[in-house]
Amino acid sequence: MPMFDLHMILTIVGVALVGGFIGLDRTAVGQFMISQPIVVGPLTGWMLGDPGAGFVIGAVLELIWVLDMPIGAFVPADATISTVSATAIAALASPGASSLPVIGFSILLTVAMAPATMKADDIIRHWNSRLADALVSGPGPHLGRLLVRAHLSGIPVFFLKSFVLYLVFLPAGVAAVSVFNHFPDRVHRAMALFVKLLPLVGAALVVRKLSMRTVDLFFLGGFMIAALAGLLFHAPALIIILLTVTGGWLGARYRERRS
């Protein structure tokens, strides 16, 4: 049976359509907070028949991205696209109920998604700003009406940005999970432990108010510590958690002294 049959393709397109509309809530329209990971994760999981995966992914990514707000000129990574993509990838690659290792691998894929979403957001914002600049430079009796029309015309551009990214991320993610399923059991156990450690990362970020660069170090560093300690030394989970917390605390202290 082919991986991407007609049903899979239609489901991916459907998720891209729904995700594109929900993504408008992030900054373009409404801002009713539906686009927050803790909301959109379970919603996506419910749509695809796996609300458990959506809840886990949404809760973890909400903790990790909660401090990154699109305020002023700062353009954070699109947590909505990351959450919807990770949930959809886990649900589509494991119909019924996603295993913890698959959930962890899907979350790990969001690290690769983050730079692409930030770059796409930056391009779209510059494109939309040129619409208003072009109208302001040309005087006319109906300038206010033209500005409103230009503002509304930017909304479909934000939708298309999310829609296209979903069409790229989802098939690539499902294919990546199919490869991950053939990895040894010890890798799957390490990935399951990685998921269990992620709430500690989110809690540390909220308490310490860490920067985006430090988020990546915590994210990848926690995974490496968990994987090495579990695979090489067969350390208990409590020891791995203590090592991760200690390493993260020392890293944060080191950054504070350097700054």
Compose a concise summary of this entry:
The protein is an all-alpha fold and 259 residues long. 78% of the residues lie in helices and 0% in strands. The chain has 9 helices and no strands.
Radius of gyration: 20 Å
How many domains make up the coordinates? 2
The portion of residues assigned to helices is over 70%
Strand content of the residues, in percent?
Answer: under 5%
Uncertain stretches of 5 or more adjacent residues:
none
What would you call the structural class? mainly alpha
Terminal residue distance: 56 Å
Major beta-sheet overview: none
Question: What's the overall geometry?
Answer: globular
Mean pLDDT: 77
Q: Care to count the β-strands? A: 0
Give a written overview of the molecule.
This protein is mainly alpha-helical. 78% of the residues lie in helices and 0% in strands. It has two domains: 1-182, no CATH class; 184-259, no CATH class. The protein has helices at 6-23, 37-47, 51-65, 79-93, 100-137, 143-180, 185-208, 212-232, 237-258. Helix 1 crosses helix 6 and helix 7 crosses helix 9 (237-258). The mean pLDDT is 77.
List the helices and strands and how they pair.
Elements: H1 6-23, H2 37-47, H3 51-65, H4 79-93, H5 100-137, H6 143-180, H7 185-208, H8 212-232, H9 237-258
Helix pairs in contact: 1-4, 1-6, 2-3, 2-4, 3-4, 3-5, 3-7, 4-5, 4-6, 5-6, 5-7, 7-8, 7-9, 8-9
